[in-house]
Design brief:
Layout: H1 51-60, H2 68-88, H3 98-120
Helix pairs in contact: 2-3
């Protein structure tokens, strides 16, 4: 982390509390903090955040978009299900018995696994 000439790190902004442990400053951006914070196990400062940073963190944690790997897994699962249905010639799922339903799900599952493995071949890590 970059340090200021005084030796203090630029981020996070601390302390985030006053002498009575009331929230004062957002740990992330320096604006006025409210009473929600996050700190590490060895950190004595509660790490209070402002409303804007709390909203930003909650938006990031929703996970409403699928990753490239999840999309590849779903695509491969759909392909595997299509192949399974094509092999058996049954398109109405109500005509499947218990074993065929399970084997259909197994085909989807294995297709997803195959898709993830395929996508991870191109991963930068």
């Amino acid at each position: 982390m970059t340090r200021l000439p005084t030796g203090k790190p630029v981020l996070p902004i601390t302390p985030t509390v006053d002498e009575n442990y009331n929230p004062t400053t957002c740990k992330a951006c320096g604006r006025i903090a409210i009473g929600i914070g996050r700190s590490g196990p060895r950190d004595k400062d509660p790490g209070y955040l402002c409303k804007g940073c709390i909203v930003a963190v909650s938006d990031l944690s929703k996970m409403d978009r699928l990753s490239v790997y999840e999309l590849k897994a779903l695509d491969s699962g759909v392909e595997a299900v299509g192949e399974y249905i094509g092999e058996h010639g049954v398109t109405n799922l109500l005509d499947f018995d218990d074993l065929m339903q399970r084997m259909l799900v197994k085909a989807a599952w294995e297709g997803c696994i195959r898709g993830v493995r395929e996508a991870l071949k191109d991963a930068p890590f």
